[in-house]
Inverse folding.
């Protein structure tokens, strides 16, 4: 019986906040609604039953970070890919879970299991917690970590306005390019049946095609950020409104190469990418007594144009092509929260209104103009809609805690693909595999018991998760295919804490967790990625990963704002999930898919220090080292997506109204895609990133000046120890100026 139906009568169940517990002696965990200061999050970390790291909004304000993706790279053992996908303890983004105000949030991507953290502005949260060890009251689908975001809460009556400008060294005050927008009728792409384009649309296409491929020029002004925040409290009722609008323009240059079986070049391209991004984030939180209604709305609109020039040696052609990609992401998260139960709904919409590939080429020996390559032309539309309903209930009997949780998820994905024929007539080439629909029901229940004896605290229990998982798709001939899975997992965990002194702890954690495939990863859907120059396809035989976790940690808390920790861990993966180069690939037709090697292990250590040097200087540093091994077909290598080390360091200086902060981040090289046979693994390079902020603050106003990525080092993907550089992309430095002003009492009001 579905818990959600029963919940409408008796209200629903799920994870208890691991920072909320009774007095357990040396380790006391108390609930707190206000965790935005450094001292408060360190206190939560010290008293937590599990191993965790946290970042407060107070710390975020000292950085130039604009999104949660930027913030996450400050957490120990954590890094970010593509400014949006999190990597924890060297494990790729698919091994992590996300909680927003206690609600489990799924993947935002149609083609991978990942949450896009660039969706959420950094100023909309009070704190960010990364749980690194398991507990029965946490989701069981993770190994790297569970990222918990808590949006701003009402703590006082306030009103403020932020205005920020950001200058990009490669983009601002420079010309950008775009393609004129032209889309098909709305009702055409919503039909479930394939059909030819109406004759009138073919005629319009024939008339407009030439002008469509002529790029239009625009002038980039500095990036803009505006934030309005207002909150009000009474004895029974309170509300908070936060609206963040951010627009950014970016220009990057990428060199792309690939090689034949020897060292001969197959192609050598230079891509100029022009990207325009608009991000709108809104929080509307209402509270009546102990009942909270939390609403978060985030919208991301991204337009990018890629101009490609170079040589295709395989075809002996000079290439002058372009592509345009328009992405829209919308996520609505609504939660009704009480001290014991919660109900939540999430709507995720993602679309590509028009993804175009416009290929032009001529023979190397030709002196004439380039011609349009009909067979390589490409127009792509896609939409993904996902509805998630969930809820949880938890309670305590003495020192025993229990709870139940359920999540229902429905997803529909559809795409339509076209190619141009001579005379610029659109011809549909949509395959039966270009669509799928999916459903999952995740039900979980847990029980845990916490006991303190002298200086020892033990908290253990078991979590039971049952997931019913169905994906409906088709093969190329149109025959229905269904992936039907029913996973029942028993996930025990034990957390032991020894209070050496009042400010020193030794922690030991033992647990079982899993990593389940996402809908897209097991669907038969295949598409061409122009940017990566590769076909991407799922694997219907992909299995879940079962993981054994062992963690040991020593903690010292010299003061309320200081922390020193050393952690070691070991993880064993049965059937890990990796992205690989498919066995059917050749350099001229790269195919990426997923697979399950039999076994993999990863172990490592983490050191975190936050220490005041004197009244003005504070140093923060976390260093992480990882070692992984995957044995497959007689070859040993590191796990795909796993970095061998991560370095995060910060120096904070504060005196009176002024503060200066420096940040350094570096990750070690990692495998981006696993090769096969004679095709080498593709690696992503190590890169140094330095950020700096200078801030002046009064009671009414603050002014913050920041510089991001001072070094601007290249991002690279390569083979054979950098002998073969496949992708080389420049990264721009940004200079930020932000002014925050607390509005006077009667300026204006928002009433809800």
């Amino acid at each position: 019986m579905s818990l959600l139906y029963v919940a409408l009568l008796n209200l629903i169940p799920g994870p208890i906040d691991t920072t909320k517990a009774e007095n357990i002696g040396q380790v006391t965990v108390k609930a707190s609604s206000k965790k935005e200061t450094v001292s408060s999050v360190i206190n939560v970390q010290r008293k937590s039953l599990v191993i965790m790291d946290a970042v407060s909004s107070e710390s975020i304000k000292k950085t130039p970070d604009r999104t949660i993706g930027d913030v996450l790279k400050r957490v120990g053992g954590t890094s970010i890919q593509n400014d949006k996908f999190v990597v924890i303890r060297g494990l790729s983004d698919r091994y992590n879970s996300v909680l927003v105000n206690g609600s489990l949030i799924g993947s935002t991507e149609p083609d991978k299991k990942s949450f896009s953290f660039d969706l959420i502005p950094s100023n909309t949260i009070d704190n960010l917690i990364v749980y690194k060890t398991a507990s029965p009251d946490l989701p069981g689908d993770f190994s790297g970590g569970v990222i918990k975001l808590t949006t701003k809460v009402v703590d006082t009556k306030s009103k403020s306005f932020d205005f920020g400008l950001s200058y990009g060294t490669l983009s601002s005050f420079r010309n950008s390019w775009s393609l004129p927008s032209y889309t098909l009728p709305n009702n055409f792409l919503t039909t479930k049946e394939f059909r030819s384009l109406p004759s009138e649309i073919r005629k319009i296409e024939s008339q407009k095609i030439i002008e469509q491929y002529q790029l239009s020029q625009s002038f980039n002004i500095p990036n803009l950020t505006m934030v309005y925040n207002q909150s009000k409290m009474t004895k029974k009722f309170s509300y908070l409104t936060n609206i963040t609008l951010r627009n950014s323009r970016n220009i990057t240059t990428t060199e792309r190469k690939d090689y034949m079986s020897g060292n001969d070049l197959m192609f050598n391209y230079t891509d100029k990418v022009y990207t325009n991004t608009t991000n709108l984030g809104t929080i509307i939180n209402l509270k009546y007594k102990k009942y909270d209604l939390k609403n978060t709305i985030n919208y991301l609109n991204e337009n990018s144009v890629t101009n490609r020039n170079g040589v295709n040696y395989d075809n002996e052609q000079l290439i002058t092509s372009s592509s345009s990609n328009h992405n829209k992401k919308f996520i609505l998260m609504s939660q009704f929260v009480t001290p014991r139960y919660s109900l939540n709904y999430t709507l995720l919409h993602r679309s590509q209104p028009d993804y175009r590939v416009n290929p032009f080429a001529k023979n190397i020996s030709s002196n004439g103009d380039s011609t349009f390559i009909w067979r390589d032309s490409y127009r792509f539309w896609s939409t993904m809609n996902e509805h998630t309903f969930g809820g949880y209930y938890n309670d305590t009997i003495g020192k025993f805690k229990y709870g139940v949780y359920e999540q229902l998820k429905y997803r529909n994905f559809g795409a339509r693909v076209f190619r141009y024929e001579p005379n610029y007539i659109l011809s549909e080439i949509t395959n039966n595999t270009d669509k799928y629909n999916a459903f999952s029901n995740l039900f979980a229940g847990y029980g845990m018991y916490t006991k303190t004896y002298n200086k020892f605290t033990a908290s253990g229990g078991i979590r039971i998760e049952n997931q019913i998982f169905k994906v409906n798709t088709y093969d190329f001939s149109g025959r229905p295919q269904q992936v039907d899975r029913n996973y029942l997992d028993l996930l025990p965990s034990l957390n032991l804490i020894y209070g050496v002194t009042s400010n020193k702890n030794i922690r030991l954690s033992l647990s079982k967790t899993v990593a389940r495939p996402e809908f897209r990863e097991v669907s038969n859907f295949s598409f061409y990625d122009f940017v990566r120059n590769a076909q991407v396809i799922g694997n219907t035989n992909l299995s879940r990963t079962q993981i054994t976790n062992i963690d040991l940690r020593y903690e010292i808390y010299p003061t309320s704002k200081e922390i020193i920790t050393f952690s070691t861990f070991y993880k064993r993966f049965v059937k890990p999930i990796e992205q690989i180069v498919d066995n059917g690939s050749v350099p001229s037709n790269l195919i990426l898919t997923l697979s399950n090697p039999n076994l993999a292990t990863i172990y490592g250590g983490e050191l975190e220090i936050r220490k005041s040097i004197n009244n003005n200087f504070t140093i923060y540093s976390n260093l992480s080292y990882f070692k992984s091994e995957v044995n497959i077909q007689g070859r040993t290598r590191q796990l795909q997506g796993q970095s061998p080390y991560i370095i995060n360091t910060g120096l904070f200086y504060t005196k009176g109204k002024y503060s200066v902060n420096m940040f350094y981040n570096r990750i070690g090289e990692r495998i981006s895609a696993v090769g096969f046979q004679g095709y080498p693994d593709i690696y992503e390079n190590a890169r140094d990133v330095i950020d700096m902020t200078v801030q002046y603050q009064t009671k009414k106003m603050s002014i913050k000046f920041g510089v991001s990525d001072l070094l601007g080092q290249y991002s690279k993907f390569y083979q054979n120890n950098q002998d073969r550089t496949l992708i080389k992309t420049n990264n721009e430095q940004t200079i930020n100026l932000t002014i925050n002003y607390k509005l006077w009492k009667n300026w204006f009001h928002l009433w809800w």
Remarks:
- DSSP finds seven helices and 43 strands in the chain.
- Residues 317 and 365 are 8 Å apart (CA to CA).
- The chain has one domain: 3-742.
- Helices lie at 3-10, 38-47, 57-60, 68-72, 186-190, 199-212, 519-522.
